[in-house]
Amino acid sequence: MGAEEEEKILAKERELKMQAILVRIMKGRRTEKYNELVNEAAKQIIAFEPNVQSIRRQIEYLIEGDYMIRDEKNPSILIYKP
């Protein structure tokens, strides 16, 4: 396995770790402000140093995947969709 393949695998593992943490936070809180969710996820990810942009990308992925939705009245609030 080459270095490029290992980097792809590592990046995918990190994405999955971020998604799991984001879902766990939202399961417990049900609703959360977007920026608060980003900050809390950054605190809980201890295996590596995530950048804010990658956390935001994973939040958008989870919204597209129907794990959470934006509040209709206030789009800065996210709602967990069980």
3D structure, described in words:
With 82 residues, the protein is of the alpha+beta class. The chain has one domain (3-80): Orthogonal Bundle (Arc Repressor Mutant, subunit A), CATH 1.10.10.10. 62% of the residues lie in helices and 12% in strands. It has three helices and three strands; from the N terminus they run αβααββ. The chain has a three-stranded antiparallel beta sheet. α1 (3-29) packs across α2 (34-44), α1 crosses α3 and α2 (34-44) crosses α3 (52-64). It is elongated. The relative contact order is 0.18.
Labels describing this entry:
82 residues, alpha+beta, Arc Repressor Mutant, subunit A, three-stranded antiparallel β-sheet, 3 helices, 3 strands, elongated
N-to-C SSE series? Answer: HEHHEE
Binned, the helix content reads 55-70%
**Main sheet summary:** 3 strands, antiparallel
Alpha carbon gyration radius: 13 Å
Helix-strand layout with pairing:
Layout: H1 3-29, E1 31-33, H2 34-44, H3 52-64, E2 68-70, E3 77-80
Antiparallel strand pairs: 1-3, 2-3
Short description:
62% of the residues lie in helices and 12% in strands.
